[in-house]
C-alpha cells in the first residue's frame, strides 16, 4: 500500500521546489511507494477565493493522508481582512506541535571552521501564534493587544520531544561512528524568563521538569538523565549561536523565538535554501522548507530545491524510514561538497533543475 | 553648572565597566563638567533588600539628574516572587521610549569585508515588556498568558525617532565627508505582521504613516521624505542582517524584536562588549551597555569597558554634546584598530584597566 502524501506547494518558489522534492522521494532507492495528492492552500488562493486553507484540504489531510509537505506562503504587504496564514492554521488544525529544524553545515566546505550541527525544536501551537488579537480606539489613538499563551501541557510535550531528538541524534552518531559536535547530547532551553517570568518561567520550569521527573520518579527507567541540559536567554542565544554555534546540540524554544532562531541558524550554513523542517504531531508529519516564497526570484527557475528535498527526507525519517532518508541526506551533502552545482543563493549559477539532476545522480536514481 | 549624572552600576561586570566610563567622561577634553551620583539598583540589591529599584533612585533621577548611566543586571535562574527587572522599570518610569543601539564595525579590521554600520531603534515601553502576565490552573495543567501591547502613539513616536536618527546620521556623514554604507538614509521597519496582523500591523502602519503624513500633509516642510523606507519580517530580518548587514542603515522594531536584533547585530562586530545604547525620552537620556552582567567573568577585571565608554559618549551626543562624544568614539576606534589592547572577548589578553588607559591615552587625556 502506497504512502499518501498531501502536497501543498502554496505560493511563490514553493511551487518550484516542492515538485522537485516529490520526484526525488519517488526515485530514492529503498523508499516506500508514494501516492502524492495535490492540495490547494496559500495566500494567492486566498486572493482568488477568499479562503487560504480550504476545508477539503484539511479533511483530506486528516482522513486520507499519511503525511504531507508544504511549500511556502506569501506575506501580504498590508492587513487583509479575514486572512490567516495557512501554515499556521495547518499546524494548529493537525496539532503538529513540534517544528523540528535541523541546521547542519557540510563537512569539507568553508563552513567547517565554524561547525554547526544543531536542531531547533520549536513549539508550534501557541505563544503569540494563537493569534488572539484585539484593537480599540482610545483618546490617544489605536491600541492593539495580542495574547501570548504558554501552557504547561504544550511546554512539557515540546520538552519531551527535544529530549527525544537529542537521544535519537546521539544514537545516530554512535551508529555512524561520528563524534558529537558537543561532548554529549544536550538540550538548551531558550526563553526570556528575566522579563516574562510567568509565561517563559512556565516554559523553562516545564522543560526542566521533563528531565527532572524522568530521572527521579521513574527510578532511572527513563533515559533523559543521559542528556545534559542548560539554558539561554533568547537575545543571548542568538548572539551565542553566531559566536560559538558548535556548543549547541538541541535547542528548544517557544514558537516565536524558535521562528527567529531557525532563520538565525540558517544564516550560519550559507543559505535559507538549505534548511529543512518537519511539523510533527503524535501521528502526522508535515515536511516544510524553512524559507519563504521569495517573490523576488519566483518564476525564474533558480530557487534552491535542497531545503525541500531535505524536508522530504526528514518527513521520511520521522515516519520511520531512516534508510532512504539517510540516502537522500548523503546525496545532498555530496552535491554541496562537490560545489559545482549550486544555485545563486549559494553563489553558484545552477538552476533548480540542475540541482535536482545532480541530487538524483548522486542518489544513483 | 555641572551636569548631574546618576550612576547605577547594578550587578556583575556593570560594577567594573561603569566606573571606567565615568572616568573617561570626566577626562575627555572639551566635555562639560560632571557630577556623578551613585544610585542603588539591581538584582543583588533585590536579594538583600527586597527592592530592585528603590523609590529614592527614581526620585533622584527625576528631580536632580540631567542624565544617567546603567550597568547591567543579573537574571534570576528561577522565578522570584515580587522581582521585576530594574532596567525595564527605569525605562517605563522615566518614559525612555527609545532604545537607540548603534552597531558599527571598525575600519581597518577584519570586520571590514562585512561592513556593519547600523542603528537599531528599539521601542522601549511596550510590547511584551508591559509585563502583564497571568497564570491559572486548569484540568490540563497550568496555563500562563502575557499581553503584548502595541499602540499607535508609541509606534508613531518611535517611528519619528527612527527617521530623526536616519537624518542625523546622514548629516553627520556629510559633515565628516564619509560615504553612506547604504546609498542613502533608510529606515527598515521590522515586524511580524504576517502572523500578528493586528499588533504588528499597527506598528507597521504607524511607522509608514510617519513618513507618508510628513511629506503629504506638511507640503514638503518635513524632511522624512528624504529617507527611504522598507520593511523586513523579523525572522528574515535576522537572517539578512547576517547575510548582508551593509544594506541596513536604521532599523526600527517593537521592543522584543529590537532586543533580539541588537544582540544579533553585536555578534557581527566581534563582541557584545563593544555595543552601546542610550535609552532616550523627550527630556532624559540614560546610557547603557548592551551586554549583560556576565557572571562567568565578573570580578576578574577583564570585562570589556568599551560598550560602557561608548554608551557614555552616546549619552553625551544625545544630550547635545557632539564634539566630546566624537572624540571618545575616535579614541575607541583608534584602540580597536591598533588591536594591541583587547580584552579576552575580542581574543586579546588585556584587562579592563589596560583598555581604560589605552582609551585615555588616545583621547590625549
Ligand atoms: C510564514 C510564517 C507564518 C512562518 C512562521 O512564522 O512560522 C514562517 O516564518 C516559518 O518559519 O515557517
Ligand atoms: C536585562 C534585560 C531585561 C534587557 C532587555 O530585555 O531589555 C536586556 O536584554 C537589554 O537588551 O537591555
Q: How would you describe this structure to a colleague?
A:
Chains A, B: This is Putative LYS12-homo-isocitrate dehydrogenase. Chains A, B: Belongs to the isocitrate and isopropylmalate dehydrogenases family. Chains A, B: Keywords: Magnesium. Chains A, B: One of its GO terms (molecular function) is homoisocitrate dehydrogenase activity. Chains A, B: Pfam families: Iso_dh. The structure is a homodimer. Chain A is of the alpha/beta class and about 375 residues long. Chain A folds into two domains: about 1-100 and about 270-365, 3-Layer(aba) Sandwich (Isopropylmalate Dehydrogenase), CATH 3.40.718; about 115-270, Isopropylmalate Dehydrogenase (3-Layer(aba) Sandwich). Helices cover about 40% and strands about 20% of the residues of chain A. The first copy, chain A, is built from eleven helices and twelve strands. The first copy, chain A, has helices at about 15-25, 45-50, 55-65, 85-95, 150-175, 200-215, 235-245, 255-270, 305-320, 320-340, 350-365, and strands at about 5-10, 35-40, 65-70, 100-105, 115-125, 125-140, 140-150, 185-190, 230-235, 250-255, 280, 285. In chain A, the strands form two sheets. In chain A, strands 2-1-3-12-11-4-5-10-8-9 form a ten-stranded mixed β-sheet, with helices on both faces. In chain A, strands 6-7 form a two-stranded antiparallel sheet. In chain A, helix 5 (about 150-175) packs across helix 6 (about 200-215) and helix 10 (about 320-340) crosses helix 11. Chain A is globular, with a radius of gyration of 20 Å. Chain A starts with a strand and ends with a helix. In chain A, about 55% of the residues are buried. The model of chain A has no long low-confidence stretch (mean pLDDT about 95). Chains A and B meet through strand 6, strand 7, helix 5, helix 6 and helix 7 of A and strand 6, strand 7, helix 5, helix 6 and helix 7 of B. One 3-isopropylmalic acid sits at the interface of chains A and B. One 3-isopropylmalic acid sits at the interface of chains B and A.
Amino acid at each position: 500500500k502506497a504512502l499518501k502524501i498531501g502536497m501543498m506547494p502554496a505560493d511563490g518558489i514553493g511551487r518550484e521546489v516542492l515538485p522537485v522534492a516529490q520526484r526525488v522521494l519517488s526515485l530514492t532507492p529503498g523508499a516506500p511507494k508514494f501516492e502524492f495528492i495535490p492540495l490547494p492552500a496559500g495566500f494567492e488562493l486566498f486572493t482568488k477565493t477568499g479562503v487560504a486553507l480550504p476545508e477539503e484540504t484539511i479533511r483530506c489531510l486528516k482522513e486520507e493522508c499519511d503525511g504531507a509537505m508544504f511549500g511556502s506562503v506569501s506575506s501580504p504587504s498590508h492587513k487583509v481582512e479575514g486572512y490567516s496564514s495557512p501554515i499556521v492554521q495547518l499546524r494548529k488544525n493537525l496539532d503538529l506541535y513540534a517544528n523540528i529544524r535541523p541546521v547542519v553545515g557540510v563537512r569539507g566546505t568553508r563552513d567547517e571552521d565554524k561547525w554547526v550541527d544543531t536542531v531547533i525544536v520549536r513549539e508550534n501551537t501557541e505563544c503569540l501564534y494563537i493569534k488572539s488579537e484585539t484593537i480599540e480606539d482610545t483618546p490617544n489613538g489605536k491600541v492593539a493587544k495580542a495574547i501570548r499563551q504558554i501552557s504547561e501541557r504544550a511546554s512539557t510535550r515540546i520538552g519531551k520531544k527535544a529530549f527525544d531528538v537529542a537521544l535519537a541524534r546521539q544514537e545516530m552518531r554512535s551508529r555512524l561512528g561520528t563524534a558529537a559536535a558537543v561532548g554529549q547530547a544536550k538540550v538548551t532551553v531558550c526563553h526570556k524568563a528575566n522579563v516574562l517570568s510567568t509565561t517563559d518561567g512556565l516554559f523553562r520550569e516545564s522543560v526542566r521538569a521533563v528531565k527532572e521527573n524522568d530521572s527521579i520518579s521513574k527510578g532511572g527507567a527513563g533515559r533523559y538523565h543521559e542528556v545534559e541540559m542548560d539554558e539561554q536567554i533568547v537575545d543571548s542565544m542568538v548572539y551565542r549561536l553566531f559566536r560559538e554555534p558548535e556548543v549547541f546540540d538541541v535547542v528548544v524554544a517557544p514558537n516565536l523565538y524558535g521562528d527567529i532562531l531557525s532563520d538565525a541558524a540558517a544564516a550560519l550554513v550559507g543559505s535559507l535554501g538549505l534548511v529543512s523542517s518537519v511539523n510533527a504531531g503524535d501521528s502526522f508529519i508535515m515536511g516544510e522548507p524553512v524559507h519563504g516564497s521569495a517573490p523576488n526570484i519566483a518564476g525564474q527557475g533558480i530557487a534552491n530545491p535542497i531545503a525541500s528535498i531535505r524536508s522530504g527526507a526528514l518527513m521520511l525519517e520521522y515516519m520511520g524510514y531512516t534508510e532512504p532518508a539517510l540516502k537522500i541526506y548523503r546525496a545532498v551533502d555530496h552535491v554541496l561538497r562537490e560545489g559545482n552545482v549550486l544555485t545563486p543563493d549559494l553563489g553558484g549559477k545552477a538552476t533548480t533543475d540542475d540541482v535536482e539532476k545532480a541530487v538524483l545522480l548522486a542518489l544513483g536514481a
